[in-house]
Design a protein that fits this description.
Layout lengths: L10 H29 L10 H6 L1 H33 L1 H22 L10 H33 L1
Length: 156
Amino acid sequence: MSSTITLPDGFQYVGASLLSTVFVLLGQNVLVGRYRKRAGVQYPQMYAEKAQMDASKDAHLFNCAQRAHQNTLENIPILYTLTLLSGVKYPIFAACATAAWSVSRISYTRGYITGDPKKRVTPLYMLGAISSIGLLATSTYIVSGWLWDAFSAKFL
């Protein structure tokens, strides 16, 4: 049995916005590598130890870069799911929200690697949080509609 999936007009923008997240991750990966080298933190050590941080500001900056990257990785599966679900019905909205999220992660990372983690929360970062909430609301609306259609077709 074969199935056909028809993507809405504008879905290519969803793909482009998802690709932007890959560039964000690659940029964070480069930063982590650069700060790891400066700090002298050897693999497989994930973070600099407290003694290393007390001895070297570079070790502290490495931990900040590593944490910004980790946090992005922790959120990527949620973002991908919400973007794809939203993009099926509202591709332009999904693409714009995901692109805003990518920009927000750049701002988040730039703030974090100053060495003062409080600087990670900026107005641009908040834009990403609002985008995520919008994607969640849109995805919930779409999926609830699908569930209602399936329920009503079967039982009503």
